Each structure stands twice: as structure tokens, then as C-alpha cells.
Amino acid sequence: EQPTSGKVFIDDEDVTFLPPQKRNVSIVFQEFALYPHMNVYNNIIFGLKSRGYTKQKIYRNTNNVVGSLLIFTLLNKLPSQLSWGQRQRVALARALVREPKVFLFDEPLSNLDARLREHLRIELKKIHKQFAVTTIYVTHDQIEAMSLSDRIVLIKDGEIYQVGTPYEMYFKPKDTFVAQFIGTPEINLIDGRIIERESNFYIDLKDVDILLPSEFYPQISKYKDKKIIVGIRPEHLYDRWYYEGKIHNNLLRGRVNSVEFLGDKKVLYIEWYQYTLRILTPIYNEISVNDNIDIVVDVSKLHLFDAETKQRII
Fold first, then answer.
1. Between the chain's N and C termini, which has fewer beta carbons within 10 Å?
2. Residue 79 exposed, middle or buried by CB count within 10 Å (0-12, 13-18, 19+)
3. What is the average pLDDT value for the chain, to the nearest integer?
């Protein structure tokens, strides 16, 4: 398949028209393919032998990777004797031992259970640091993306929405799609309007006008009397009884619709007008379904978006 435009470079070498086998790119797909007649060890080293690696180099490369992926006990088994998760780890090992210029991983952990995925995420970061090889990792799992990556490219329907670090994706989303896609529980998005009174700017939110920090004024002054979308993450909304900061006309009053337990925290689902707001609260919060609640908004952590373009203002 030829690119519609541009060129592909790896280490300053133009590989646009090189056949795949000459690009030195190691690939692991979601649907992996192992040689059924070879045991695990021979599956792993097959590519190395065909490239003329010495026995010493094959042993050194294989030993490091096999230990990291916890597959020493599988080396003499055939693929048919392995679970899906074990086959996935063997496919990973086969890609890693080649010492390629680029790794391309297409959802390599998708067939593993949660505990093993967590272990292998840690191991993949170690391996990446050890080999210092550029890695392109394709995933639909935001936890994998946020925990593994140095930079994220967020794509929807073939269009790049944002490129940035995990920090930038979470704290400075480019638009409402990125803000909603990154983060669990999902960000709260509320329709609002910018108003000005006595040289101060406020967000008009239904029954309350929230005073905005002065550092917001340069960016929002042109939105005076215009609609915006307000984004606030669940960890930046607080039950009033568990909030130690100052309260200055930044309270929303709602009713608890549902409570979700997440170990040391709870997620409260709050009915507020036509919205369901999500709040992260300590596990010791004894609030119950149908209780009324005063919600404190941390205005310093607000995300503001243009109501028409959905693009980030602040």
C-alpha cells in the first residue's frame, strides 16, 4: 500500500518504497500467528536464525526477553498447548528478540486477563527502556495509552484529534471529544454562558453564577454573553462536607442518583437539572442514594470549550 502523500523515514533513512521485510520493523498484531509445528523456543528464534544470528547472540537476546515475559516454562510446548494469553506472550517475545529499529504493536495485550495485562504493561515499559527503540503502540484502551506512552496520537475516524503527552491529553484536552475520551470516570460537560459584572467574569450555570479566576480573563473576555461548554473532572467536584477550601458562590445542589464503589473511593452520580454529574469522593463518605448534596466546584480546574467548535478555550 502506497502513501497518498509524504514519505516514511526510520533513522533518517527513506523506507517509503522498501518492502516490509527490509524495513527492520517488528510487528505484533492482535491476531498473532505462530508456527504450529514448532515449539515455543523455535518460534521465538526462527527469525534470528534466518537472519544469521550467532548462537551466543540468539541465547542472549532470547534469555532476556523470555525472563521478562514469564515464559521459561513454555519453551518446549507447541502453540496448540498454550492458552490465548500464553500465545500472545510468545508473539511478543518473537518480536522483541529481533532488536528492530521500530516496534509496531497492534493491541498486543488484548487477549490477556487484567492481572497479566498490568504485569506486561510494566514489563513493556522496562523493555522499551532497555532496548531504547521507538515503539508505535495501537490500542483502544486508554489505560494502556496513558500508562505506556511518552506521547499519544488520538485518532477518530481516520482524523488526528490531538498529539501530546499523557499529561497534556488529560489536563489540556484540545476539544470536548478528547476530554470525554480520556479519563475514567468521564469528565462532566455542562452548558454555560460567560457574563461580566463589575469587571469580573462569571459562568452562568442555571441557578448559580460561578466567579472565574482572574487569570482566565484574557482568554474568555471575547466570549462575553456567549455560550460555552464547561468541563470539570469528577475529582475536581467535592461533597461540601468533605471540602476544606474556601466556598465562594461555587455550589451546585443536586440529588444522589447512584453510588459506585471503587475500592478506596466512590463515584457519586448526581442528578442536577438535565445532567448526571459524576463525583469522586472518599470511601468513608456515608452519603446514600436519594440524599441531597451540595457540590463544590474547584474553579481553578475548569476546562472551558467553545460551544460551536467544541475547541478548547482554557
1. N
2. buried
3. 91
User: What is the rounded distance in angstroms from the CA atom of residue 109 to the CA atom of residue 66?
Assistant: 16
In a domain, 131, yes or no: yes
Angle value at C-alpha 89, between 76 and 79, nearest 5 degrees: 40
Distance CA 92, CA 173 (A): 32
Judge if 193 and 301 occupy the same domain: yes
DSSP code of residue 283? T
Does the residue 299 lie in any domain? yes
Order of strands across the sheet that contains 292-297: 237-239, 292-297, 251-262, 265-272, 275-282
- Which of 150, 167, 202 is the C-terminal boundary of a domain? 150
Summarize pLDDT for 222-276 with one digit per residue, the tens. Answer: 999 999 999 999 999 999 988 877 777 789 999 999 999 999 999 999 999 999 9
CATH number, domain at 287?
2.40.50.140
Helix, coil or strand: residue 69: coil
Q: Which of 234, 119, 130, 122 is nearest to 186 (CA)?
A: 234
Neighbours of 40 (CB within 10 A): 26
> pLDDT tens, 81-108?
998 778 878 988 898 888 888 989 888 8
CA distance 146 to 51: 35
- Crossing angle of helices 114-131 and 84-96, in 10° steps, is 0
Q: Could you tell me how far CA 251 lies from the centroid of its own chain?
A: 31
What is the number of domains present in the chain?
Answer: 2
